[in-house]
Amino acid sequence: MASLNKLKNVLMLAFDWILYGAGATDTCKVTVTQPRLQEADYSIHTVFLTCAFSASGCSSSPPQVLWFRFSTNEHEDLCTPGCTDDQKYKVHLSSENNVSLQINDLTVDDNAVYICGIAFSDSSSPHSKQTGDGTVLTKTEKQHSNGKLIFMIIASSLLFLYSTTVFTFFVVYKVCSKSHTFKYPLKKKIKSGRKIFQAIAQELQKQRYAEHCQQPDGLEDDTVYQNR
Questions:
Q1: Strand locations in 15-134, DSSP E?
Q2: Which of 9, 29, 83, 188 fits a 20 to 30 Å CA distance from 172?
């Protein structure tokens, strides 16, 4: 953090040198804000670093936009305001009070702190030239081993799911086949048992009816015999 604050002081001196001899108003005040961190996936080749600013008491003329890079305890002037490499870096005015730095052919070597600066060249106010706190740009490297591991986990999961589905289908098919085979013989056995029971009951009923019908004749013979 101390090195970054020292760097900002150096940049302010650089601003004074770049804009030396510029003009007039002392009430111009600029505030610059940047996101602290921006991550880029290994597959990304172009990134845009954003920078927002507000200006009060400044002229209506567009400000100068400057970008610096801080890495390994040294800083590099990327765009002040012209860029050192027009193919690699480009400055865009996204909208009013919003600018961005485009970085092409992004590699892990571009990992650094990028500092945005805004300066109104027609003002002599010390607050007319300000920098942000910087954005830490991080591009991740491609992890081949992790990719293979993830692929193996996904393939294993799909194979297990497929095997489980086939086994479940086979079990259900076997159970349904057995229930279908024994369903109708069981019904036939129940129906035949009922018929036998009904036949026995009817036969017993017939015997009781016959005995009941024969009993009055016997009584009548005994009475007649006794009277005689």
A1: 29-33, 37-40, 47-56, 64-71, 74-79, 89-95, 98-103, 112-119, 129-131
A2: 188
DSSP state of 83: B
Across 145-163, average pLDDT = 70
Where is pLDDT greater, at 77 or 212?
77
The residue-averaged pLDDT of 86-112 equals 92
Please give the DSSP secondary-structure letter assigned to residue 52.
Answer: E
Name the residue with tokens 């400057």.
Answer: 66
Binned at pLDDT 50, 70 and 90, residue 216 comes out as low
Instruction: Give the C-alpha separation, 157 to 209, whole Å.
Output: 77
Q: Where are the domains of the chain?
A: 25-139, 143-177
pTM given for the model: 0.55
The vertex-31 CA angle with 30 and 37, nearest 5°, equals: 145
